[in-house]
Automatic annotation (TrEMBL):
Organism: Notechis scutatus
Name recorded for this polypeptide: TRAF3-interacting JNK-activating modulator isoform X3
InterPro entries, per the entry: Cent_Immune-Sig_Mod (IPR051176)
Region (Disordered): 1-60
Ranges annotated as biased composition (Basic and acidic residues): 14-34, 45-60
Keyword DNA repair belongs to the record: no
Lineage top rank: taxon: Eukaryota
Coiled coil location: 220-393
Keyword line: Coiled coil
Keyword Coiled coil tagged: yes
Length: 457
C-alpha cells in the first residue's frame, strides 16, 4: 500500500497510516459501535397503555411455565413495525442476556447486512408477533395442569378412597393431584429439552454468523485497502512526473515492499517460534501429564496399601485393646493379691517381732538359769569340800578313838550322824531342784527350736 501521497477527499483516516494501524483502528471502531448503548434509538415513541393487573392464578401459571412478566412487557417497549430496524429496550446494556433472539438478530441485521439470511430460520424457531400487545400463550391440556387448574370434583369422588398394601387409606383426589403433578413435571421436562435443543441450534447459528461477519469485515477491509491502493496508483498515473520522480517513487515503493516483506518475515518467524514453543510446551505438558498419571497411579496404589495397612492396624488396635483389657483385669487381680500379701507380710513381721522378743526373753531366762546353775554347782562343790573335810576329820577321830573314852566317842558319833542326815537332806533337796531346773531348761530349748523352725519356714 502506498502512503505518502494525498488521498481522495472521500477517504477517511489520518495520513501516513499503515495497513496494520488502519485495520486495528477499524476493529476498535467496530467494537466500540457494538458496545455502544444507543440511547437515541431506545426512546419510546409515546405513552403506552399500562399493563392490566394479573391475577395470582396467572402469576402462578407463568411461574410454573418459566414465563415471566418481563417477557410479556418486553414487546411493548419495541418501536412500531413501521420504523426501520429493531430497537432494544432502554436498559439494553444491563439486560442484554434477557433480549429475545429475534430482536437480537434484527439488531445484528442493522449492523451486518449479510446475516439477514439467518433471520428466517430464527423466526421459524422463535416466532414473535409484530404487535406490541400480542404474546404467545401455551395451551396446556387439562391433564398437564397443576393443582391451581384442576376442576372441582364431585362430592362422591372427594370422599372416595383406596386401600394400600400397608393398610392406609389414600383419597382418589390425592392420587389425581399426584398424577397431575407428574404429568406437569413431564411436560416441563419436555419443554426444557426442546429449549435446550433450540439453544444449541441457536448457538451454532450464532457462531456461524459471527464467523461470516468476521470474514466479511476482513474482505471489506481488503477491498477498501485495494481500492485505496488503486486510487493512489490512478492519482500517480494522472499526474505528470519526470523520469527521476518516477524512479524515486518506484524506489520508495520497492523500499516499502521490502520493509513490508521484512515485517511479514519477522512476524512469520515469530509465529514459527511461538509455534515451536507451543509444541514444546505441549510436549512438556504431555510428559508432565504422563508423569502425573504415573504419579496418580502410584499414589492410588499407595492409598490402597495405606487403606489395607489401616484396616490391619485397626484390627491390631482392637486386638491390643482386648489384650489391654485382659491385662488390666490381671493387674487389678495382682493388685488385690499384692495388697493381701502385704497384709500377710505385715502380720508375719509382727509375729516375727513378737517371736524375737520371746527369744530375747528366753535367752535372758536362760542366762538367769545358767547363773542359778553355776550358783548351785558352787554350792555343791562347797558341800563336797565340806564332806571331804568331814571325812578327813572322821578318819582323824577314828585314829584317836583308842585314846578317847567311850562317852566322848558316843557323843561324836551322834553328832556325826546328825550332821550326815542334815547333809543328806540338803543334797536331796538340791538334787531335786537341779532336776526341776534341767527339765525347765529342756522345755525352753524345745520351744525356742520350734519357734526358730516356724520363723525359717
Amino acid at each position: 500500500m502506498i502512503t505518502g501521497f494525498s488521498k481522495s477527499p472521500g477517504q477517511r483516516g489520518p495520513q501516513h497510516e499503515s495497513y496494520e494501524e488502519k485495520y486495528e483502528r477499524r476493529c476498535e471502531k467496530h467494537e466500540s459501535l457494538l458496545r455502544r448503548n444507543n440511547r437515541t434509538t431506545c426512546r419510546l415513541t409515546g405513552k403506552e397503555a399500562k399493563e392490566p393487573a394479573q391475577s395470582p392464578r396467572q402469576k402462578e401459571f407463568f411461574r410454573r411455565r418459566n414465563l415471566t412478566t418481563e417477557e410479556l412487557g418486553r414487546t411493548k417497549m419495541m418501536l412500531p413495525p413501521g420504523k426501520r430496524g429493531t430497537v432494544f429496550p432502554v436498559n439494553c446494556s444491563d439486560n442484554l442476556g434477557e433480549i429475545p433472539p429475534q430482536t437480537y438478530l434484527n439488531y445484528l441485521s442493522n449492523i451486518q447486512p449479510h446475516t439477514k439470511s439467518i433471520q428466517h430460520n430464527f423466526s421459524n424457531i422463535f416466532p414473535l408477533s409484530k404487535s406490541s400487545q400480542a404474546m404467545p400463550v401455551m395451551n396446556v391440556p387439562t391433564n398437564c395442569k397443576g393443582t391451581q387448574t384442576t376442576k372441582e370434583l364431585s362430592s362422591e369422588k372427594k370422599n372416595s378412597c383406596q386401600q394400600t398394601d400397608c393398610g392406609t387409606a389414600v383419597l382418589d383426589k390425592e392420587i389425581i393431584q399426584l398424577s397431575n403433578y407428574l404429568n406437569e413435571a413431564l411436560h416441563r421436562e419436555l419443554v426444557l429439552k426442546k429449549k435446550m435443543v433450540i439453544l444449541q441450534e441457536l448457538l451454532a447459528m450464532l457462531l456461524e454468523a459471527a464467523e461470516k461477519s468476521w470474514k466479511g469485515q476482513f474482505n471489506e477491509d481488503k477491498l477498501k485497502c485495494r481500492l485505496s491502493m488503486l486510487e493512489n496508483q490512478l492519482q500517480i498515473c494522472t499526474q505528470n512526473y519526470s523520469k527521476r520522480g518516477l524512479k524515486r517513487i518506484i524506489l520508495e515503493m520497492e523500499d516499502q515492499k521490502q520493509n513490508y516483506e521484512q515485517k511479514v518475515k519477522e512476524s512469520l518467524q515469530k509465529l514459527l517460534e511461538e509455534k515451536t514453543q507451543a509444541q514444546k510446551q505441549f510436549q512438556n505438558a504431555q510428559r508432565a501429564l504422563i508423569v502425573a498419571v504415573d504419579d496418580c497411579s502410584l499414589w492410588k496404589d499407595q492409598l490402597d496399601n495405606l487403606k489395607k495397612d489401616w484396616s490391619q492396624l485397626t484390627d491390631q488396635h482392637s486386638e491390643v485393646k482386648n489384650k489391654l483389657h485382659v491385662l488390666e483385669n490381671k493387674l487389678q487381680w495382682s493388685d488385690t493379691q499384692n495388697s493381701q500379701l502385704q497384709q500377710a507380710l505385715k502380720d508375719m513381721e509382727n509375729e516375727r517381732a513378737n517371736l524375737y522378743s520371746r527369744i530375747d526373753n528366753l535367752q535372758e531366762e536362760k542366762i538367769l538359769i545358767m547363773k542359778y546353775l553355776d550358783e548351785v554347782e558352787g554350792k555343791l562343790r562347797t558341800e563336797k569340800n565340806q564332806k571331804l573335810i568331814l571325812e578327813a576329820t572322821t578318819e582323824h577321830l577314828q585314829k584317836q578313838i583308842v585314846t578317847v573314852p567311850n562317852e566322848v566317842l558316843s557323843w561324836v558319833t551322834s553328832k556325826q550322824n546328825v550332821q550326815s542326815e542334815d547333809q543328806g537332806e540338803k543334797e536331796s533337796s538340791l538334787r531335786e531342784e537341779l532336776q526341776k531346773r534341767t527339765f525347765q531348761l529342756a522345755a525352753k530349748k524345745k520351744e525356742v527350736k520350734s519357734v526358730l523352725i516356724s520363723v525359717i519356714n
